Structure formats: structure tokens, C-alpha cells
Amino acid sequence: MRIYLCQVRERTDGSLYIERNREASTEHDYIAISHVWGSPDTIQAVKVDGIDEPVSLSPGKFDILTILRRPDVCGDTWFWMDLFCLDQTPNATIPMSDQLASIPTIYKRSRCVKVLIESPICRDWTATVAQADTRQTDPDTFEELELHHARKCRLMLFADPWFDRLWTRQEGLTNLGDIDKWVSEGENADQREAVYTFLYDKLQYHGNIKPDSGTKFQAYLDLAYRGELDMKNYQTISAGEKSLYSPIDSAWRSGRTTTKARDYVLAVFPDLEGYTVPTDARKLSFAELLEDALQQLQHSKHSAKAAAKVTKGTVETNDIADTSIQPFIPATPANITEAYDTFHLLKRLPALDPTPQKPLTCSGENLHVIAQNLTLTTTIPLTKPNLADLVALWESSANITSQLLACPQSSPATATRVLKSEQDLCYRSFALSFCQSTVRKWAVEKNLPHGFVHGVVDADKLTGVTEQQYGVYLARFMGVGVIE
């Protein structure tokens, strides 16, 4: 994969400058740099020798070339750093969309990731902990002592803004090299928990199926106090097992922030196999990028698809009917949790082999996933008599209560309030059939229609609907295509 790489060079007079290799690739030997640009009220445009355009730096990094030239940072080794290696000029030899899409691979293929933190740290406390014997250290006792020290001294690594930002989280997750080195230049319990959350995600990202508390504690000491984190010490995945890591779910849980809302998409979605960064990504808003990303996931090449937790129809009264069941997208989310709060990803189930016929089962995901993966043959026609069998499958394999609360698009728990056509009436009837067992369970009175606010359309009311048209409506409702 083609990328730009940089190197700090020194002239005969001792001055430093950046040399940029525009023909490099991820096969080269290089170090990846992760850093926080700084807060919007402190960063300034700084001219760096060798770079045509000014770059944004926080006060602690104005002398960025001297920092990068240090032997314990990059020395004379080639490195990748977004400030210098993302070329946003019109004549860039690599399209900007390709540069953004390549960022996860850049960090994965690097020799190591080095993090330039913003804050000074308490060196005495750090040195004391670094020398401690982990085997003789009780995690609970250590956490109490650490918080006690933090009340007196705020110079703690876990308070650094690196643990708040979204891009730095993504950069820190991916690398599998020998060392993640922290270089210091410059709510305690909650901030420390953010570090533990990051470590949990990083361990899962690299295949540690269920990181236990001891593993996380060891990784925490290595990262925060010993200055290096060798992921090879934490690999516990066995043959045939799959990592539980989910890019969207773990990013949502992290609560990280970014200065540009569009980065809530551009920083995370490239980690999903098959996602393509739009060519004009830098010109699109967050809402436009997320809508495009969710639409991309609807294609079968992806291993997951999006389902709405909060639909447009529940928030926007002026939305048109055919988009009202799509996820509502906030215009300016405060953090990644808010950005991803209105949808979730559902894993696609493999299509079931219809020959020979076996009892239909699933892993308990959601109804519309089951329906999507039914392989229809002449022995399983979508007709009125077979509706009861589909309902039985639904009731035996899905969490109907969660489905009713989430109300995802294309779900048999989702009908419509608008009854303008024969199809609308059929959809209301189908939704009633699939959900009546759960409604009976939670309704004050057990006899339907109690518990249904907007009325009931049962099968007896579908007069005039032919058997063929009934099958067409049922196929559309289940999301498996139209049978003509």
C-alpha cells in the first residue's frame, strides 16, 4: 500500500528539516507516531522546515523536529505522522480518500507506535511503580494507592488528553509491534477507567478473547509505568476461536471525542472490512458520511448490517415515510457514544442449506436477520398456513422484548401507523402475529387487543387479499425479496 513517510534530517549547520518520501509503502520499515493535536484554544499554526503548509501544534510541540529527532523517539528512522504524511494539497499523488482509508493499515504494519503525550508525568511515582514486582502486587491495593497519590499530584499519565480523543484510540489499538512507547513532553477514577477500557479493547482487538482482571492489570502497569506494551505477551486466542472485538461497539463504549464530527466515521469505519471512504470525504458532513457508511453495510459483502435503535420517524416529524425507519443521525454529536447511539450492528448469519431440510435455528440475534437468511424453496412457501411456523421460529430464537424496544428497520416487530394501502394492513397484521406473545406477557390484561395503542388488524380482516399477493406482502415484510 502506497503511503508517505518522513524523516528528520540535519544540515551541516545543525538545523533540522523534514524529508518526505512520496513513493514509500507499508512494506518499508517505519515508526508510527500517535499524538493529540491539542485543544482548539491552544493549538497554533507553525511553519516546519520541509513542509510547504503550516501545521497545527500545541505549545509543548512547537519544537517538534527536535522531539522527533531524539534517539528514543525516531532518531534517523523513517516515520509516519499525520501532520506531515497526510497530503491534502490538490496535486497529491495519493487521493485523500485512499490516505484516510489506509490509516488502520499504516499503524498495523509499523515497527511500533510511539505516543507523544501532552502532559508532564510524576517521574518519582512512575519510577517507583515500574520497579515493583507485579506478582507480589495486589491490584485493588495498588488502585487505592494510585488514587491517593493522584489526589496530591495531578501529573498522572491517565489524565493525559491522549485517552480522550478518538483518533488516538484507533491508532493505539491497531499496532502489534514489540513496543508502544510513551514519550512525555510536557475525575482520577474515571480517567483511569478510560485507560482500562482502552486496554480491554486493545487486548480483544488482537485476539485475547476474554481478558481477565489480572491480564488487564499487567497490561496497565506495562503501558502506564514501564513505557512499553508488548502485545505478544497477551495473545490467548486458540485455533478456531474468533475475537469478540467489534469496532463499532467498542468505539461507542469508549466515549472518545474529536474536534471534527466527520472523524467519528473516518476514524472507525475503515476498520470494517469492505468499507470504502468516499472520494469527497473531507467535504461531507458527519451525517452524510454516516448515512453513506450505513448504506454501504447493507450490501451482502459485509459481515454485519446496521439496525436502528432510534429511528428518524421517532424524532423528525417532517420526514418522508420511506426513510422514517432509518437510524436518526444527530448533526453535531458531543462524542462517539452520542454519534453511534441511534444504531447498532448485527452480525449476518450464514444462509441455511435447504437440502436436506432441517429445523431452522439461529444464534438468537434478531428476527429480521433470521428472515433474511431463510432459503426459500417450494417446501417452505410464504403462505398464510406457514405464517404460524415462521412465528414459532421467531418466538424460539429471538429476544422479542429487545426487538420491540429497538424497533430496527425491516423487523417483523416493525409495522406502520399509516394505513393507506392493502400492504399497510397486511404489515400491521404480520407485526401483530409476530409480537402478540410478548405483548400478552407484559400487558396488564392478557387478552388482545389490550396493550395495542394503534389498533389491531388480524388475519380475518384481510378480506380480498389473494394468496399470491399475501405471499408477496409477507416476503417484503420479512425482507427476503418479492415472490412473483
UniProtKB/TrEMBL annotation:
InterPro entries: HET (IPR010730), HetReg/Transcr_Mod (IPR052895). It comes from the Eukaryota. It holds the Pfam family HET. Residues 30-171 form the Heterokaryon incompatibility domain. This is Heterokaryon incompatibility domain-containing protein. The lineage of its organism: Eukaryota, Fungi, Dikarya, Ascomycota, Pezizomycotina.
